[in-house]
Amino acid sequence: MLLCQNQSAMLRVLYRYPWRRNWNMSSDSRCLISRFSIVSAQALEADEIVFEALVKNRLSPLYNTKVVLRRLKTTQAQRRGKRAIEVLKKLARRRLMYHSYSMQVHGYISSLMSNGHSSFTLVHGHHGSFSLRHWLQQSDWLPTLEATLALDEESVRKVGDTTTGGPAVSRHSRLIRVLMRDLLIGVNYLHSHGLAHTELRLENVHISPVDRHVKVGILGNAAYFHENAENDNTTVNDLDRRQMMIAFDMRCVGFMMAKMVFQELMDPLIFTKFKLFFSKGHDPSCLREYLLRVLNHRLSSGNVGFQILDRNWGAGWNLLSLLLANKPSKRISCLEALRHPFLCGPRWRIAPSMEIIRWGLGSTAVRITEEYIYSLPQRRKLSHFIELMEMLTPHSKPKHWQELIPGKWRFLYSTGRHIGLTLRQPPARVLIGDVCLTVARDSKLNNRLSLTSDINFTVMRGRNWSHNKIGINGKLVINSSSRIQAGRRLYLKEENTVALGQPSFGESNAEHVLAQKLSSTRWRKVIPFEELPSSLPAVKLISGDIDLTMSLDIPLSEDIDAARNVTREVRTQVPPALFDLSKFICGTYVDSRLLILRSVDGSALLFTRSCLHESHNK
């Protein structure tokens, strides 16, 4: 369709970018300007110039309407523009949905230039001067975007929320849910019509203040799932192509969600590190552990993004990991994402899957361990969560453990005794740092594993150690090998437990506590059995000899007793099984993110998969 042939013009060009002040207009550009009243112009990329214009032809249905003239200069850019017209024809049957979630394409202007080349200008709707990327780069983007979307009670009810306003974290979380749901509805609209967007980025997404919808671009790079769209015979290759293209779009949505949650990712250098995590094949379920280091946050409570994703039992991290899954077949679809607990407010009751329940238990346990000061209620709660995770373990066979357990695991918590420095006067004051357990397979043909425990510590000197934690850094490395085989973990009766000696914290009343959990309404539908079993499947660890090495940055003294005192103090503070790996007797829980091992005294050790070996400062 050809628009506005004979408009008289009034020329007023406002240069938004000073470095583009000297570009020249061809005679064809002047002809184009004569058809519209130009409000402003932007040179966005090397292959296009965008004009903000007002239609002045009184006979046009778009009279006095602000539109965008996107002049496409290169052959590739013109191909994208013509592709947008083709997509419009395909989606014309549901034009209302198309106009709601995509930039409305009114038509195009094509003419032959004096040099023999053709000129192609796409005319589409005006949805404000800011893309979503520009919004997020504003210092006051949150209140401004809330005002643009006019988030009233009716609006927040559409995302299942109950209130408006509130703390900044709640407002930020609510706004992300509004934008993500609108974005996913628009992308699902394309997927349901056999199209993939292929170019979902913050730069290509706009927010219209008129209908308050997210616009997913002009669809110039949209591609059909099937190479021959007219052929109804679906082949295996077509299904693979469809899955790959949908997975690519969902990965792009995941990157956009990450940038909306973490403002730090708008920095290109930090975002490069973020993408490097995935390019190296790390599991997205470990993304939280990685970002804590990359963003230099020791505690998640100091960052708004972490607080948003940690809410609702860590549901946000689960959605982000499903959007960014390494395998395309594992990525979540638009419809599944719209039903995810993170995007559903408190008004909508969503029955969580077993995977979400396991994720929530693990996420909450990890958050409690970050508080460092473990009161009696906290320790009881952690012990309960660990027991429940062991009862819901998804992998109980040795072959599953051989696939999942290799890697580096950071120690988080032990249900055994905790001994610190506060109430003691040891001969050497040692502050324990990161403690990691590295597991590797000796061979793919057998069930042997090599275990390495790395205990980082600082030897503090002087009387002011409680305020000044600077000292001599050191490391203890313990190596051992272990063989795994199928086994079971027995629940002992209370009288038998006492007869064996003093049990670790939370173990003596394990049967009573778990019986209470099983009888509660909250867990009755979750636990796969009605009463406490006498045993649970586990993986038995049969350890071999151990080898211990200690290294210090600076020698303490020539006296061997100084090194002996440091070793004894480290052994006092860390769980015995991490100092003597032969004390690990079984593994009770493992997934891509968390690991639980049991020691000979019955205590459980909780680990999270770590990326500390990655140099995040590069």
TrEMBL record:
This is Probable plastid-lipid-associated protein 14, chloroplastic isoform X2. Keywords: Plastid, Transit peptide. Residues 36-343 form the Protein kinase domain. It holds the Pfam family PAP_fibrillin. It is found in: Plastid. It comes from Cucurbita moschata (Winter crookneck squash). GO terms for cellular component: plastid. InterPro entries: Kinase-like_dom_sf, PAP/fibrillin_dom, Prot_kinase_dom. The keyword Transit peptide applies. The keyword Plastid applies. The gene is LOC111430636. GO terms for molecular function: ATP binding; protein kinase activity. The lineage of its organism: Eukaryota, Viridiplantae, Streptophyta, Embryophyta, Tracheophyta. Belongs to the PAP/fibrillin family. Its main location: plastid.
